[in-house]
Amino acid sequence: MVKEAARDVSGGRLESSEYADNFSDYHPPLNGHEAAVESDRCYFCYDAPCTIACPTGIDIPLFIRQISAGNAKGAARTIFEENILGGMCARVCPTETLCEEVCVREEAEGKPVKIGQLQRFATDKLMGEGMPHPFERAAPTGKRIAVVGAGPAGLSCAHRLAMHGHDVTIFEAREKGGGLSEYGIAAYKSVDDFAQAELQFVLDIGGITMETGKALGRDITLDALAGAHDAVFLGIGLANVNALGLDGEDAEGCEDAVEYIAALRQASDLGSLPVGRNVVVIGGGMTAIDVATQTKLLGAEAVTIAYRRGQEAMNASEYEQDLAQTNGVTIRHWLQPKALVRHDDGSIAGIELEYTRKDGGKLAGTGETVTLKADQVFKAIGQQFDDGPLAGSGLNLDGGRIKTDDNRKTNLSNVWAGGDCVRSGEDLTVVSVQDGKIAAEAIHATLSA
What are 8-39's pLDDT values in tens digits? Predict the structure, then answer.
């Protein structure tokens, strides 16, 4: 422990106008003229690499051609046919490493067609004009499906099942639906309560009931759901955050980045959110980038991301890393946490980090250390699946997550799963949406047989 000035953590570091500016829409939407000009840049490729790169298989050249022809609502329908959460994905998808990375324009000129912004233009056009839902529900089948989790995977699955005429009940542990779209992304990526508008858009297909405040293992059990429904879909995400493995990790100021982002997302007054003068974030993924960037935008003076490997190994895209650094975040590589430094009262004063290197292909500490002052240390080194709520269900796990086949079917006769909670899951919203869609089609085929 060390004797220093007390931790400097407080809210209200900025003027209210600064919060509004800092957390405004980071990518303002294209207007009609801008969308028309950008859509004309598309070559409308046959066997388009952008479509192949899209996890949900959206026919990207088709929807861009529709925009070019002045049919933005038709373009939106093309998008929603494959990705009912296309509006949010347009905001949060790492298009720079998916569809735009393989765009022919990117290959030839280093400047891809702005596919993500065009997708947002089309979906916002349809959703923002009070248009009827673009899809009609099929005749009721009488089949009942339980969907656990109102995140991207669960909502995608529920919508597709409802469209096929099945009755769906979504059970959500939190008080609001939306999952990571509501609680887990940077606030400047989705403004104006868009996650809730999109949730309502999904529910508008009809045939879907949502029960909030219902947690698996506490209020409901998998056995009971499977017994009372024709099928169950689990989209329960990852509940536990990985620990740093350091003594004193429960000290005041050593915080969970996921929880902090959720609190920020739900704050009605950003000035009320306490932030340190000096912040250190441990991790190299999108959560690390999001919490670091947002604490800087909340008024932190010095924000440092410490990552144990090199820049090329970071899970966050190069674009997101650049965004953080543009906002004043320092990213330091080849550093791993060694010890927490604490004040006499036990609260966080800083963190000692050890330099690392590659040794025979493995990561090793060098013994050399550096200590960074910190009022807050955020843990952003990944999340784990919590299998506690599934105890005794007989559900097979693999690598700490739910094991499924290619149709997202588990080993249980009427249970499917998708999103971050499954073994093959990738931590992308668009991949979760695809999981939900695949599972829904498999459930529909099974119930229709």
Answer: 999 999 999 999 999 999 888 999 999 999 99
In eight-state DSSP terms, residue 312 is G
CA-nearest of 27, 84, 61, 77 to 432 is: 84
Taking only the tens place, the pLDDT of each residue in 112-121 is 999 999 999 9
In this structure, the strands spanning 335-342 and 348-359 are antiparallel
The confidence score (pLDDT) of residue 26 equals 86
Q: Letter for the amino acid at 395?
A: L
Instruction: Give strand pairing partners of 169.
Output: 146, 209
DSSP readout, 176-221? SS-THHHHTS-GGGS-TTHHHHHHHHHHTTSSEEEEES--BTTTB-
For residue 90, how far is the Cα from the chain centroid?
12
CB atoms within 10 A of CB 90: 24
Give the tens place of pLDDT for each residue, 260-290: 999 999 999 999 999 999 999 999 999 999 9
pTM value? 0.94
144 DSSP β-pair partners: 167
Kind plus residue range of the DSSP H or E element containing 373: strand 362-373
Interatomic CA distance for residues 338 and 354, integer angstroms: 6
At how many degrees (to 10) do helices 115-127 and 60-68 cross? 70
Instruction: Give tens-digit pLDDT for 194-227.
Output: 999 999 999 999 999 999 999 999 999 999 999 9
Residue 58 confidence (pLDDT) above 90: yes
Rounded to whole angstroms, how far apart are CA atoms 48 and 71?
21
pLDDT at 4: 56
Q: Are residues 175 and 212 in contact, defined by beta-carbon separation less than 8 angstroms? A: yes
Q: Are 92 and 190 in contact (CB under 8 A)?
A: yes
Of 372, 359, 366, 242, nearest to 305 by C-alpha is: 372
Give the integer Cα–Cα distance in Å for 101 and 53. Answer: 9
d(CA 70, CA 328): 40
Bin 193: left if φ > 0, else alpha if -120 < ψ < 50, else beta.
left
What is the distance between the alpha carbons of residues 33 and 403, in angstroms, rounded to a whole number? 47
**Containing H/E element for 17?**
helix 16-22
